[in-house]
Design goal:
It holds the Pfam family LVIVD. This is WD40 repeat domain-containing protein. The chain is 0% helix and 58% strand. The chain is built from no helices and 56 strands. The strands form 13 sheets. Strands 3-4-5-6-7-8-9 form a 7-stranded antiparallel sheet, with no helix packed on it. Strands 1-2-56-55-54 form a 5-stranded antiparallel sheet, with no helix packed on it.
Length: 584
């Protein structure tokens, strides 16, 4: 991925240098010429449809959750619009593509020579794929999640908005809501032998018959789980049922389907893709192949799993480390390309992480801190772990000593034994919750709540920790970062606070900036701060005058979870990927 691609951002301009895809957020797929094309959050993942051998991955900006195919062209729908790219280009890391439109897509459907695109504002666009251009558009009261073209009509499943219909043969077609008994949510619709089958979430399966412009109930069947998606194979009806996984109904009597098999698979199944007697069950973390056999029987085939969700991100020289949800930690090299190096698995959900020398400290949600040695980054090795009595929300290391911010137990001072285990030396009980800690020689800065404060703690005697100064604040700062004589602090609601700590016993707040949205990560250089702000992307803040921090702009690569700096690169953690960008 050596080529640089220029993305459109709002100040500053940013070049994407490289991406390292960790996992996937599978949501949709199509099969074409023995290959399976899956929307994977950050782009399209290509697998062989029988054995799940990976053939390639194409990176596309935005969050990509819909895909349709027409002849040899893929149409990929995202939160930024619909792109078209040749099928052959889907295995290129950074393919060339064209924009078809730029709406936030909620559903797509190809029927004959027409591509229907629904946006989240409830408008449906009809694109002529043979001749080009938009044929027509219709506005509904709700955003469709699934569409069906049948009997000269377009049916639109709009979740809690119910079922809508457009009579395309009418001289003046318009969108009309279909009356259904009890007005259930509708997540999918399909037709079979003049009957319509509706996936109605927790309301189960509804069988109806079209009567003029309304639906007449034929049967209603309670089902386990929530029905998301329906596909028919001959006289078998299959359903994606969320936590109930995969349901198989016999259609010997189409008016009264009989549930005769339920298959449990990995993940929460929310979509189905079919081809040649095979049904693919799509979940967030993987895909399972089910073989559809005669006599209403189904057998499990292969499963393809991806890594978990990316969390924080930290760097040590040319090495990067990330926690992968409840899968462990992964190391990668930082150069012109980001490349996988090694992996260590442990069974804990990890979100925050710190690197000190060759040791990685990973904070988990079950009070355990795991220590990993990355001296050989291609072979990360366990160095120990410690089970704390309270949730650990921050830590810092100086030599063999570790200061730990425990949310409910204050600040602990621990000796890191060369053989691995941590041994407690001293503790300072602080009022309220303890959020984070940063060490400066034999002093430490600690953020707490109730009252919201920054404490200066003397830990020169590791057995007798003492708070020697306290600055009360108007809000809690859950994350703090020390850079030279300044302490930078983040409030989860979006505030960046700047404190001068050159005189540790007289800490002074000198700057403040309110940022939009929810902030999750912070990286600081001599002149800029970069703030990971979830759906807001990454904010760049000018720190040249720390008394007047200024928001320069933002760039968006996806839901930004963490951010780190490595030489001239900005590394951004998004779900399932690490992105390396360079600012101009």
């Amino acid at each position: 991925m050596l080529a640089l691609v220029l993305f459109l951002f709002c100040n500053p301009a940013v070049e994407l240098q490289s991406s390292f895809i960790i996992g996937g957020d599978f949501t949709d797929g199509v099969v074409h010429d023995s290959l399976l094309y899956l929307t994977d959050g950050r782009g399209i993942r290509v697998l062989t449809y029988k054995r799940f051998e990976e053939k390639g991955f194409s990176l596309l900006p935005g969050e990509n959750h819909h895909v349709q195919i027409y002849k040899d062209t893929l149409f990929v729908g995202s939160n930024r619009g619909v792109r078209k790219l040749p099928v052959a280009k889907a295995v290129d890391p950074m393919p060339d593509y064209e924009w078809l439109n730029k709406v936030t897509v909620s559903a797509m459907l190809v029927t004959n020579d027409t591509l229907l695109v629904a946006d989240r504002q409830g408008t449906v666009y009809l694109h002529n794929l043979a001749q080009g251009g938009v044929i027509d558009s219709f506005t509904l009261g709700f955003a469709p999640v699934r569409m069906l073209s049948a009997e000269g009509r377009l049916f639109l499943a709009c979740d809690t908005g119910g079922l809508w219909m457009i009579d395309l043969q009418s001289g003046s077609p318009g969108a009309k809501k279909v009356k259904l008994e009890n007005d259930p949510p509708v997540l999918d619709i399909l037709e079979y032998k003049n009957l319509f089958y509706l996936a109605c979430a927790e309301d189960g399966l509804r069988i109806t018959r079209l009567k003029r412009n309304n639906m007449k109930d034929v049967a209603s069947i309670e089902t386990p789980g929530q029905l998301f998606r329906l596909i028919i194979f001959g006289d078998i009806l299959t359903a994606a049922a969320g936590t109930a996984d995969f349901l198989i109904f016999s259609l010997d009597d189409p008016q009264q389907p009989v549930l005769n098999q339920e298959e449990n698979v990995k993940g929460t199944v929310h979509n189905l893709v079919s081809t040649e007697g095979i049904c693919y069950l799509i979940a967030e973390s993987g895909i399972t192949r089910m073989n559809i056999l005669p006599n209403s029987r189904v057998t499990t085939g292969l499963h393809y799993a991806t890594r978990g969700v990316v969390g924080d991100i930290k760097t040590h020289g040319k090495i990067g480390v990330i926690p992968i949800g409840d899968e462990g930690v992964m190391t990668f090299s930082i150069d012109e390309e980001l490349r996988y190096l090694g992996y260590r698995n442990f069974d804990a959900k990890c979100e925050r992480m710190y690197i000190f020398g060759s040791h990685v400290y990973t904070l988990s949600s079950n009070y355990v801190v795991h220590i990993t040695d990355i001296k050989d980054p291609s072979n990360p090795k366990p160095k120990g772990f410690h089970d704390f009595e309270s949730l650990v929300t921050g830590l810092d290391v100086a030599g063999e000593m570790v200061l730990v911010a425990e949310q409910e137990r204050g600040l602990g001072c621990w000796w890191r034994c060369p053989c691995g285990p941590l041994r407690e030396r001293g503790r300072l009980n602080l009022s309220g919750r303890t959020w984070d800690v940063r060490i400066r020689k034999k002093l430490a800065f600690v953020s707490t709540s109730n009252p919201a404060s920054i404490h200066t703690v003397d830990w020169s005697d590791s057995t007798e920790l003492e708070s020697i100064a306290q600055l009360e604040l108007d809000r809690d700062y859950e994350k703090i970062c020390l850079y030279e004589d300044y302490l930078y602090a983040l409030d989860n609601s979006g505030a960046l606070g700047i404190f001068k700590v050159s005189r540790p016993t007289r800490i002074k707040q000198i700057g403040h900036l309110e940022l939009p949205g929810s902030v999750q990560g912070l990286a600081v250089s001599s002149s800029n701060a970069y703030v990971a702000a979830g759906e807001g992307g990454v904010y760049q803040v000018d720190l040249r005058d720390p008394t007047k921090p200024e928001l320069l702009g933002s760039f968006y690569l996806g839901n930004s979870i963490g951010v780190a700096l490595a030489d001239e690169l900005i590394l951004v953690a998004t779900p399932y990927a690490i992105e390396a960008v360079r600012t101009e």
